[in-house]
Amino acid sequence: xxxxxxxxxxxxxxxxxxxxxxxxxxxxxxxxxxxxxxxxxxxxxxxxxxxxxxxxxxxxxxxxxxxxxxxxxxxxxxxxxxxxxxxxxxxxxxxxxxxxxxxxxxxxxxxxxxxxxxxxxxxxxxxxxxxxxxxxxxxxxxxxxxxxxxxxxxxxxxxxxxxxxxxxxxxxxxxxxxxxxxxxxxxxxxxxxxxxxxxxxxxxxxxxxxxxxxxxxxxxxxxxxxxxxxxxxxxxxxxxxxxxxxxxxxxxxxxxxxxxxxxxxxxxxxxxxxxxxxxxxxxxxxxxxxxxxxxxxxx
Length: 299
What we know:
Blueprint: H1 18-28, E1 32-35, H2 37-49, E2 59-62, H3 69-78, E3 83-90, E4 95-99, H4 107-112, E5 116-117, E6 121-126, E7 140-146, H5 157-163, E8 170-178, E9 184-189, E10 194-196, E11 199-201, H6 203-210, E12 216-226, E13 230-239, H7 245-255, E14 264-267, H8 281-298
Parallel strand pairs: 1-2, 2-3, 13-14
Antiparallel strand pairs: 3-4, 4-5, 6-7, 7-8, 8-9, 10-11, 12-13
């Protein structure tokens, strides 16, 4: 069956003009919305302050950045679309590699996974150092392979060889794990992995834990240099209400190993993002280092 479809591109970037995006959804009665999590976060914020009608939305597709189960549940509760799905992919290997738009009665797969591999594509998870395939459930680098992977970067053979090996596997630079059913769980970027005293720490696990606390809307975790440990764990949070840091640390101690608990937790009004709405963690690291320097100067 073939159905007529209309794709609407707002005249302004959704991350810079959420009011215009809201107007487009309402006036055009859009049935599906594809966007990065920042857009959905801003839509929910906007809806709390203005009268909005998003009842036409039947499907919300999240891509471009990982989200927690709590965030998806908030979208379902506040925007009320019948379906919220995640997709994983990159431009170089041909866009979408997995989608969570698959039937499942398991909450973990429904809310935490990026779904299963799409047809005519392969996925494997390899150890970052040895490049060998890791057992199911273990975290490693996500590699994909398909007939529509790019041939290479224009006039940059060295960069091409860094990401596409001689068996045509694309090394994404992303971290993830596969379960026994083939569902992919995103764990962050290889370059965002925090190495504290020789221990590999995945920021996404800590972010997910932080966002389960009822005082926190969004959290971002990252590392900053430390003379003794190499790196230490830090976090910025956007609060829902006033946060008692001692209460928050007690909460984290119940759910995380001691070395994963951020040494420094600070509040921020908004995360720095790219023009496409992706959060820039390197800027968060620089902001945190400046805050800590200022605090040292005041003592």
